[in-house]
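Explain the record.
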Amino acid sequence: MIEIATSSTTTTLVIAGDLDLAERDQFPEIAARVVGLRRQLLVIDMCRVTFMDSTGAAFLISLADSGRKRGGATVLRGADERDLFVLEVCGALDLFRVDHDHHCEQSDVSTGATPVHLPQRHRPS
């Protein structure tokens, strides 16, 4: 699932689940919406990404490249080493700013618990 949120200067994509070949049918519509918003900053929240393959990486790369062509920037928030490795293998990691200070949070709806830190998605600085 991919959700889009906007502010006056930023578009934020919140991605949950797999970002892979099985999800590619939704990529063109989402990319068109993001590009159409024409915000200078795109933040991609990957805290809840469970798996990303080269198809998912290509989607992220196309978003970053579109933003860069307009003079914008793309930030990866909550990307773990595995996600960054895929982008590096694709030769595209330099298209992104990586937020190394972000701490991913998740609320437990079933218990009503407050958000907690998920260390498997946090990368130390």
Remarks:
- Residues 107-125 have pLDDT under 50 and may be disordered.
- The two ends are 28 Å apart (CA to CA).
